[in-house]
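Why do we care about 3D structure at all? Because function follows from shape, and shape follows, mostly, from sequence. That is the central idea of this module. The next example makes it concrete: a single protein chain, its amino acid sequence, and then its structure expressed as tokens.
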Amino acid sequence: NDTPAKARTSNLSEELGQIEYIFSDKTGTLTRNMMEFFRCSIAGKSYGTGLTEIALTKAKREGKILEMPDSTPLPDVDPKFSFNDRRLIEDLQSKSPQRDNIIEFFTLLAVCHTVIPERDAENPKKIAYQCASPDEGTLVDAAKNLGFFFHTRNPKDIICSILGKDIQFNILNVLEFNSTRKRMSVIIREQSGEIRLYCKGADTVIFARLKSGSDELRQTTLDQLEQFASDGLRTLCLSYRIIDDAEYSKWNNIFQEASVALDDRDQKLDDAAELIEKDMTLIGATAIEDKLQEGVPDAIFTLAKAGIKIWVLTGDKQETAINIGFACSLLTQTMTIMIINAATKEDTDQQLDAALKQSEVSGEYGLVIDGHTLHFALDPIRSERLLALARRCTAVICCRVSPLQKAQVVTLVKDNLKVITLAIGDGANDVSMIQQAHIGVGISGQEGMQAVMNSDYAIAQFRYLERLLLVHGRWDYKRTTKLILYSFYKNMVFSLSQFGFQWYNGFSAATMYDSWSMTIFNIVFTGLPIIIYSIFEKDVSINSLKKYPELYESGQKNMDFGIR
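And the structure:
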């Protein structure tokens, strides 16, 4: 992405040279937001043989040597399709019970979404998918490559080619995804007349809504999800439910009433969805790779040397967040990682106290805390302890957090530490965080322009933040302080000389300068020089500023703006 940088404000440039805390999203900000279907788990069986960048980095960190898998692409698939496991094709072509599970799995991927197919005018057989998020498009494209081709959407139905045969699904309801629900569902009527609910979402919300039984499958899938997450993959769980006509008819009346409600419509729709998204059967899980952007580890290392603390606020699983942290050099091998996962307020108190005691010993610490624990830790009675702990840490990662919690974390630091903060993100879920920070930076990526439109500065990649702060931020801080101090002292000299003259003219209000002299003095003699200086002054070269990021410290400590 080579979109030009854009300054959307002109009155915050000096604060770019005083940043002490950076709050960053992960997906699309540290990573490319270009998803690849990498692995999956279907009915407890794991498919996918590739090695991710995170897995290779992790193995290198642990001193392990990984054997490179066979990279021969599957037959009759897009050459760019990265999934590679012939066992899935063999199971799909067999007559075993696993075949039915695979068909159910990929039928869900082909049906449960809000993707719009667009046909090429010159080549009608070529279809491009327009989707709200890259994840959704990747899953639909994966189903297409494996024989489950979604190609037509009408107002009330969709048509998919399932293993070469066109099948029409009547769409009865779409229960859309939001940051609170963390899942989306569709209710369809098949050609046989059977009504099914297909649901995909975060493992925590899906597992909580499964019917009792199948504990072995649940545990197996959970273990596989942890393995996927440890390799830095983004995971989703898939489930379904068969609904009888009487239950659906009764529920649909509730849903339709909620959809036309004038007050609290969104909440009523969520409440209605809760009534039907229950007693589901687990099908499996998907795992998508989102690679790091170029130059992110170097940029984070350099910013850390400049004395800037970086917090990553992400909705991903804890294992994924930790491994991304190591891959981008936010976490290091020499760092003691403190993980806080609590189920109750009491557990949160105990773990915070234990971590505070542990951090009293001198050393380098990293903090990882999940969204559920953060809900308790952000309470006013615990927030001071959380902040005290975080201040002792070089890096902080908050995983499984909602957009609201991102904003609350930024507010906690900004209001209590009285430091200049910067938030950077690329999507609509980062807007609240960007607006709360002193300076908001939007990345013009794959998730639209919401973040950019609500930001103060827009850049194309995270690595450009290094130059924005260490070079332009420092220069602007130096120039602004010199301009203010020069103007202050120049006016003092000008005014005090006038005041002194009053002792000789009997305070008659006569001036020692004529009007032309004062105009020329202010505009030419003392105005133009400082304006030119403030525009072109570069006390240190770009290469030196990048080589010695410690020079940025002068702005953080406000060393250039004083009475001297």
